[in-house]
Amino acid sequence: MTWKQVFTSSIGQKLTMGLSGIFLILFLVVHAGLNACIWAGDGGEMFNKAAHFMGATIVPRVLEVGLFVFLLLHIIQGLVLEFNNRSKRSQGYAVSYGNRGSKWYSRSMGLLGTIILMFLVVHLIHFWIPSRFTGLAEANYGGVEMHDLYSLMKATFEELWVVILYVLGCISLAYHLAHGFQSAFRTLGVHNKRYVTLLKTLGYGFSVIVPLAFALMPVTMYLDLV
After folding, report:
1. 141: how many CB neighbours lie within 10 A of its CB?
2. Residue range 107-158, pLDDT digits in tens
3. Phi, psi dihedrals of residue 135, rounded to the nearest 5°
4. 90 contact partners, CB below 8 Å, separation of at least 6
């Protein structure tokens, strides 16, 4: 398969979606683990130190570039696949009998992905842009100056509408992952019934645990539990 076919053929597009999806799943695990440091009960010290390490060390910064590349690729290919699917559904002969027993969220990946994209833009405006470009208040731990990202989170999640927006974004992410997790691996050739069943179980568990962890972060901050 040539590079052109990877980005233009149906198989290539699905393969790209699967690979980029798995990379993004791994990122969610790391991101959730990092953000969970806000619950350490130390006034944000562990979280700020972890965020400082991720921002000041070369390997995480290189991975950050890779993340944006895979994210952009995932978005573009997702939009292309959604457009192609809509074009096929608009044709009279293209009746998808295979979708009769499918879940609504598996048929709405384009919509869920669009909601997540809008949420992601807001998230970047709230946190990534200030930490990289516009500047943040500083915290000092053991003589080391670093961004006080924890205080920014506390200030951001004082607004109820922001908390609601983040929770809705996490709900959309949960449904997107409920189908996307297993779909990513099946696209790469995992079709054995035993493994497919395992992937479904892992996928449903992942789609609940990780988005729930993300949703609890703004909620607990708003309720002043951390």
Report:
1. 13
2. 777 788 888 889 999 999 999 999 888 888 999 999 999 999 999 999 999 9
3. 95, 150
4. none
Domain ranges of the chain: 9-80+107-222
191 is written with which tokens?
């079709």
CB proximity list for 110: less than 8 A, separation 6 or greater: 78, 79, 81, 82, 85, 86
Q: From the options 2.60.40.10, 1.20.58.1000, 3.40.50.970, 1.20.1300.10, give the CATH code of 9-80+107-222.
A: 1.20.1300.10
Interatomic CA distance for residues 122 and 1, integer angstroms: 37
